[in-house]
Amino acid sequence: MTKKKVYAIAAGHKPGIYDNWAEAEKQVKGFAGARFKGFTDRAEAERWLVDPQYRQATANKTRSSETETAPPVPRDGEIHIYSDGGCRNNPGPGGYGAILIIDGREQELSGGFRRTTNNRMELMGCIVALRALPLRDRPITVHSDSSYVVNGISKGWAKGWRQKGWIKSDKQPAVNPDLWGELLELIDGLDISFQWVRGHAGHPLNERCDQLAVAASKEHNPPEDTGYPGS
């Protein structure tokens, strides 16, 4: 008996996993540059969706009419972290959400504070996920829609600020040195990369992190963000 297929759409009107072609076709029809693939294994489809390197490795794979078998993953056992954060009014009540994906299993993490900022919550999402890591010997990709976070690490800004006593190139104090300092400590020695994703563009995991962050920002009687001067 042929296994039922699911369809992973990486680029389409609404990216995600679809259980039938009729629904999947609606997301790619008329979409320039649509990218999608059918699978008989849902876990494999989810990995293809979140991992660009895995997606590229399968791009030229010859497919049979019934099944699509992927080649070995280029970065074996890679861990993926999706993170988002924000607050109302900025500063104001805020929250963060993160999803830690290890061997296809997802762990959701979230929390909120009484008064904080958007950028602090973007940082907290990454920090909390990295704190929860049970393994530190695998490659890790952090997916965030915050250019503040991604550029701060990828372009070496945060390391530069720390080396200069948390002073920026314009001679002004760096903001959020407490969180940047912890993030730098957490990633020290890791095989880790930070990848920017477009927010509110329909990516299911980014959207889920946003939902977690919003819900956390509305929690009753949240704690103070003691690192924020205005708390």
Give a verbal description of the structure.
The protein is an alpha/beta fold. The strands form two sheets. It has a five-stranded mixed β-sheet. A hairpin with a 2-residue loop joins strand 5 (92-102) and strand 6. It has helices at 21-28, 42-50, 52-57, 118-131, 147-154, 157-163, 177-187, 204-217, and strands spanning 6-11, 16-18, 35-39, 79-87, 92-102, 105-116, 140-144, 192-196. The radius of gyration is 19 Å and the shape is globular.
N-end to C-end Cα span: 61 Å
The unreliable regions are 60-74
- What is the gyration radius calculated from CA atoms? 19 Å
Structural class estimated from helices and strands: alpha/beta
Order of helices and strands: EEHEHHEEEHEHHHEH
User: Total helix count?
Assistant: 8
Overall pLDDT: 86
Cα shape: globular
Strand content: 15-25%
Biggest β-sheet strands, sense, barrel: 5 strands, mixed
What is the C-level CATH assignment of the largest domain?
Alpha Beta
Total of domains: 2
At the fourth CATH level, what is the homologous superfamily of the largest domain? Ribonuclease H-like superfamily/Ribonuclease H
The total strand number stands at: 8
Q: Provide the CATH architecture of the largest domain.
A: 2-Layer Sandwich
CATH level-3 fold name of the largest domain: Nucleotidyltransferase, domain 5
Strand order of the largest sheet: 6-5-4-7-8
